[in-house]
Amino acid sequence: MSQSAYAHSLEQRFGNMTPKAIIEVALAEEISGGLAAVSSFGADAAVLLHMIAEVDRNLPVIFLDTGKHFGETLDYRDALQADLGLTDIRVMLPDPDALVRLDPRGDLHESDTDACCAVRKVEPMARALEPFGAWMTGRKRFQAATRAALPVFEAVGPRLRINPLARWTGAEIGDYFRRHELRENPLVAYGYLSIGCFPCTRAVSPGEDARAGRWAGGTKTECGIHLNGLDAALNAPRPDVT
Questions:
Q1: Which residues belong to the active site?
Q2: What does the pLDDT read at residue 233?
Q3: Residues paired with 153 in a beta bridge
Q4: Which residues are 38's β-sheet partners?
Q5: Kind of pairing, strands 153-156 and 159-162?
Q6: What is the pLDDT of residues 116-165, one digit of tens each?
Q7: Which of 39, 46, 171, 194 could form an SS bridge with 182, CB 3.0 to 4.6 Å?
Q8: Residue 144: phi, psi to the nearest 5?
Q9: E strand spans, the chain
Q10: Pairing state of beta strands 159-162 and 134-136?
Q11: How are the residues of the chain apportioned to helix, strand and coil, as percentages rounded to the nearest 5?
């Protein structure tokens, strides 16, 4: 069975289950290479991470430290890890030689946001995911029009990407936060409903998509770690990110 057919089969059988049940299914599948989760420790991150901690707090959780995060996000990562008892947070950094070559002044985001994301997010994510056969994200359909048809299970080359919260609404996310008294990223209180790197993130206005504050004023809507380009990066020679 191809990976696409496998993902479709999983979607048909399990895609309508609760997010926690989907996590349990993913772990039970015994996927070759194993399973990890990816978290930005952003606005909604605590929901998926709380569910993961209830199922298996030793599951590897990958965090990309781009060098451009808000200080609040880094502090939140550490506090939430302690709250939930997560034991395996894997912090991935950009390749230092690539930064010297491609972004020596740290201002690449001002001229080429795609190139900045490639060196600070996509390549490090590819390195982090290389050992694994599947990974989970916290993406949800309601976050943006570009995610409106997001499946729970999808193939990325030979790997599987799982979005347990894909079908949840903003109301369900908020209710879960309240019921479990989860710690919230402090930037949410200031209107940051999708939190990335500080040079490319702003607060959103009432009525806007949650991700409207990311790369505002341009056509960019995704950093690349959730796009097909990640498959190419996963199969690219290391450490070349150009």
A1: 223
A2: 56
A3: 162
A4: 62
A5: antiparallel
A6: 999 999 999 999 999 999 999 999 887 767 777 899 999 998 999 999 99
A7: 46
A8: -165, 155
A9: 35-38, 61-64, 89-92, 134-136, 153-156, 159-162
A10: parallel
A11: 45, 10, 45
Q: Which two tokens stand for residue 7?
A: 């993902």
pLDDT higher than 50, residue 239: no
pLDDT digits (tens, 9 = 90+) for 69-110: 999 999 999 999 999 999 999 999 999 999 999 999 999 999
Dist. CA 40–CA 21, nearest whole Å: 22
Question: Which string of DSSP letters, residue by residue, matches 190-236?
Answer: GT-SS--BGGGB-PPPTTS-TTTTBSTTSS----STTSTHHHHHHTS
Beta bridge partners of 69: 197
pLDDT tens digits, residue range 37-77? 999 999 999 999 999 999 999 999 999 999 999 999 999 99
Q: Enumerate the domain spans of the chain.
A: 3-234
pTM (two decimals): 0.87
Compute the average pLDDT of residues 232-242.
49
* Rounded Cα gap, residues 114 and 215, in angstroms: 10
pLDDT for 136 equals 97
Other CB atoms closer than 10 Å to residue 145's CB: what's the count?
11
CB 117, CB 221: distance < 8 Å: no
Q: 62 by DSSP, 3-state: which?
A: strand
Give the domain 3-234 fold. Rossmann fold (3.40.50)
Q: Note the pLDDT of residue 181.
A: 97
- Rounded CA gap, 219 and 124, in Å? 24
- Helix count and strand count (H, E) for the chain: 10, 6
198 contacts 69 by C-beta, under 8 angstroms: yes
